[in-house]
Predict the structure.
Amino acid sequence: MNAPRPMPRFKNCFVCGNENPQGLKLKFTYEGDKVNADFSLNSLYRGYADRIHGGIVAAVIDEAMCWAAIVKFKRLYCTLELNIRYYLPILSDKYYTVEAISTKGKSKLALCEGKIFDKTGTIFVSASGKYLVVPEEQEMIKYLYREEGEKRSSFSLEQL
């Protein structure tokens, strides 16, 4: 099997962008059709006590599933529908993995599934979603980039 490859980024994206000062700065990778990121969120993103706000958790799993659709079908997508099941709270300063795959696609629609789990394999969150091709995808593609060490390079969806 191939080693995981880094995903491109949109620099100001709340979840994956590394130039958004309030952002999560997750680094997604992919291997085959599977997209994942290891992450830990600090207390800035808590809803109460030591629990990360459910909306922030939703953004993380949504982002992973959207990238899974992009990897599989080589098109840019946006969320049409998101269904989430929270089994256990995501706690601040703990380590988790988000993983997603696109299960089906046709024309301009992709169906995806995702989960967030810890190092023991315990599932904390699962989700499914429907993703629609972004109408202005050709315009948006120019904002993608991939980090290569200290430098950036432009990116094409065919490189996935």
Notes: The longest helix spans residues 54-73. The chain has one domain: 5-159. The chain is about 15% helix and 40% strand.
